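Entry 14. Structure prediction run on the chain below.
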Amino acid sequence: MNDVSRHHFSVAGLSALVLGLAACAPEASSREASESAILEQDLDLPAAIIGAGEPPRGEAVLYFADDPTARGYLSVPEGDGPFPAVVLIHEWNGLVDRVRQVADALADEGYVALAADLYHGQTGSNRDENIALMTAARENPDGMIANLDAAVAFLRARPDVTGKVAAMGWCFGGGVALSFALGGENHEGTAIFYGRLVEDPEVLASISHEVYGTFGENDSGPSPDQVERFADALEAAGIPNDLHIYDDVGHGFWLWVDRDPANATAPAADAWIRLKAYLKRVLG
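Output returned:
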């Protein structure tokens, strides 16, 4: 079986991990003070995912001619470019500001970022609404792929884009990103954050690029066992990959660090560092 990387990060070790400082485990009596001090450090994390993002600064764009209700969000780096590009695929609740803010963070890193809209301009505000929107989208998989094909074409037609594009998504969007790698317009990268996986090497063999994946030990969808089988299938198909399962975190930990900062901050910082390195490898 392929050995998926497993990472355990205590909050006490976060300074050493992210800031490169020498660190020793604090005494138990000082743990709470240490946690508080470390979590207030200027970490290498997008402000968006810790709940401190600024209002989105990009613009709404119509990128999919077949569905004028699908309004994406475009964020562009400063300068003339050309820049590589990233398509962001939202969670089950739709294209909300947190996803727009992550697009802004990627623009700050030098990527033209387009957050796609697979819900025809709609967003959900509770579990029932989210499930209804997600179910309706999954009933038309060809429509989702066509939407993302249009997103890639929109980006490649821009004079400030190099032509290289990666796709990334979370939860519902992570599974869609993998489906897009299997059946959509050819692109250069796929980053999956805890989304539906495929375990058939023959199906995965159609992917033409390295795959990135970030997952949580406490997640059940996908579970660590499912991630291990996905890793085995990628290896059997000859697909290079960078997959990590982080201890003590569950579903949604990366995009919503502020829901559990004590456990999620350190693994989210590591996953962000890995993501930036991955995008540089596949997009240049």
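Residues 43-283 form a domain with the Rossmann fold fold (CATH 3.40.50.1820).
Filed with the rest of this week's runs.
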